[in-house]
Each structure stands twice: as C-alpha cells, then as structure tokens.
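Entry type: protein chain
Record version: 2
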Amino acid sequence: MFARNTSKRKGEITIKTVLITGASRGIGSAVACAFAEKGYSIIINYNRSKNKAKALASELSDKFKVGCKTVKADVSSPDEVRAMFSETGYVDVLINNAGISNQRLFTDITDEEWKRTIGVNLDGVFYCCREALPHMILQKSGVIINISSMWGEVGASCEVHYSASKAGVIGLTKALAKEVAPSGIRVNCIAPGVIMTDMMSDFDKETLDELVKETPLGRLGTPQDIASAALFLASDSASFITGQTLGVNGGLII
C-alpha cells in the first residue's frame, strides 16, 4: 500500500497525495513534476509506457524527495481502475488526464475507435471519480481536476469522437461539482488549447505556424501551462471555485 497523506502535529505539515492518470509523458508528466515540487506525494498512472513512468518516478523522488509510486491501469476498464485505487489507497487530489485522440472523417470512424475514445476519455473519468469519491466524501475534502479540451467546448472537424468525449467531460464536471460541493469537494475542468505534446506529432510545421498565427498570444501552449493551471485549481487560492472550465488556450477560444 502506498504511503497515505499524513499530518505531523509538531510542524503542522500536511503531505497530500495526488493521483494523475496518463502521467508518464506530456501534460501528465508536467503536472506530476509541478505537484512534486510543491511537496505532494505522487501516484503516476500509466497504461503502456512503463519505462517512462518508472523513470519519471525515480527522477521526482530523487529531485524533490517526495514519495512517488507508479501504477498500471487502463482507465477505460472499471476493474483495472478499481484495482489501482485498491493498491494506492485514498487520494487528496485526482487529476483525470489520460486521453487519446486521432483524426478521422466522421464517416470513417469505426465502432472500435468510437468506443475506445469514449472509453478512455470519458468512461475513465467516471470510473476514477467513482473510486476516489467515497473517501473524499468521508473526509469532507478533496479536489478533482478533469482535463478536457477546447474542442469539447466548440467541436473540431474530423475529431467528432474526440470532441464528443471531451464535451462529456465538461458536462460530468459541472454536474458532479454540484452534487459533491456540500461534502467540501471541488470539481473543476481544464480545457487546453493547442499544447505541444506527442498528440501534435502528426502536424507539419506549416500547420503549426498557422496555429501560432491564429492564437492571440502568439504561441502554442506547453505542458507546463496546464500544470500551472492544475496547481492553482488544487490550491487553497481556488477554494471558492468549483464546476468551472478553465480555458488554457492562449485566446484561441474565447
């Protein structure tokens, strides 16, 4: 069992635990680094990228002297998510970051692609929230941050399945926030814009340059931009914020 959050009375030091799904690379990795720097115990969820997850855990543990654990789970599987939480124990902060994307004409989306995209991007959020909430409700505290997308707000051509899944995350966030607010739990959503991660690897330089021109702030986003937003939403500075979707998109969607 992973070391749970503890409170040391003498120094009044509270060590909180954060679980980040899909944390072996990209946005998830940056979020893990940001929270480790703030002294959180880190749980890195991964599905296929075991070596990257292990390397990140070792790096964070050595650099920031925090507890850091990796746990494998395909978040689209309720059984694997249940096993993950059984292994890790309760968490103070849950960040539902795991996601997949591919571009397809609507008429070319297969049943398998539709189910897999919804399974990871939306079902995974539901399954992880369901496992994290009982302890949060018991403790009357907790933070859930769901990573959606600006395409969940406005839709993207040739990404209907992705847009639908991310729109579902926004709806889930708003409804769940209302339901668990009386228990002292905050649920918010981050909707990234164009962020330079592996998901952008299929875009050529001309397309990326055009996206930069279309972004009012004149640059593309970084995983660190999302990590900073997540840190804010998890902090006491955001204690009166729940049910909101924070657009981190450089002004591309306003």
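Comment: The beta strands are 6-8, 13-15, 17-20, 41-46, 68-72, 93-96, 142-147, 185-192, 245-248.
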